[in-house]
Here is the input.
Amino acid sequence: MTPQTALIVFDVNETLSDMSPLGQRFADVGAEPQLAAAWFAGLLRDGFALTVTGAHPAFGDLAQESLRVVLSTVVPDGELDDAARHVFKGIAELEVHPDVVPGIRALAETGVRMVTLSVGAAEVADRLLERAGIRDAFEATLSVAEAGRWKPDEAAYRHALDKCGVPAGEALLVAVHPWDLEGAHHAGLRTAWIDRAGSRFPAYFAEPDVVVESVGELVGNV
Amino acid sequence: MTPQTALIVFDVNETLSDMSPLGQRFADVGAEPQLAAAWFAGLLRDGFALTVTGAHPAFGDLAQESLRVVLSTVVPDGELDDAARHVFKGIAELEVHPDVVPGIRALAETGVRMVTLSVGAAEVADRLLERAGIRDAFEATLSVAEAGRWKPDEAAYRHALDKCGVPAGEALLVAVHPWDLEGAHHAGLRTAWIDRAGSRFPAYFAEPDVVVESVGELVGNV
Here is the structure.
């Protein structure tokens, strides 16, 4: 841990939570499990489109309605609300990736301050971390809902910095999503990319300051 | 055709072009055809993320690099550039949907002015329309490349309006993508949604002024 990292800001969806069980939820309602990836990318696409036009959508509304949209061609009209609700409820029941609990515990021992910052609701992050038994390692679970702007807008990251009283240059954003690192970099934070799948970081975004395969690898590297 | 519609602005990708052959291109390089939908949603997600941070990416660069990213977990490193190029080249060889040629011809007979406005390159739209034999029906093929901002930013639609000297209230944006209609609505244009698949329009975007199942249905409805 280098002295300049006073605060680690963790993304939540997919960075801490393992979203793969949502594929089974799509299968439960008669859709292909692979639709989960296209749905989540489309949800973010639409949320960012609204952000571009100056709007500030509620994640839960967007998530449920975007589920109705992608399921509308495979589920009968009369079952659409129930099907969307079934998949949506899966978000609240996700578990953290296997590397998260030992990694967060090891980071906590270094004394670094940690918060989460999600486009989703703070309560969902609270419950996820409580189920994993690591809620106490985080001093706050923050959401773009209170920031007035979605990530990757600068204002979202600034909300976290302001809440914690930490300058951008002393904070590190940790995420699996390259677009999130790009927004944080633009806002002046340092960035760490968690690449669990061994994939490629898009060259059209600023290179991450740190690349790791698990949360625990951040110890001694940031 | 109501008197107030002086100009129809058509989106290009998927609205005029049939992108379904790209699924076969993914299969050609060993990926699942369904990856095409997740790739394109992710490409737009990342383009919009860059737009949120104030950047103005080149569509071709983003398309090719995002292909390398999604293919990186299924294609060996040494074949990645070739595989991405193979899929990317497919974009330049797409054809229009079956309803486009008769629909555009029927609209042209009403005397309405027509242009295209794409996040992609103007040359790709030119060649698509030339192959279909309907390039002459459009007075210009415009791109966000010259607008300085991607759709759905207001500046992109304003670029088309300025080029044509038409006030926003006399222009109609036609697209299959709800996020595009949302941006146009925010910029003051009227909107028409082409819903070829019989799907659902997301309630988190402003309702389209017109909903049709084919280009030809716009005649007499706008």
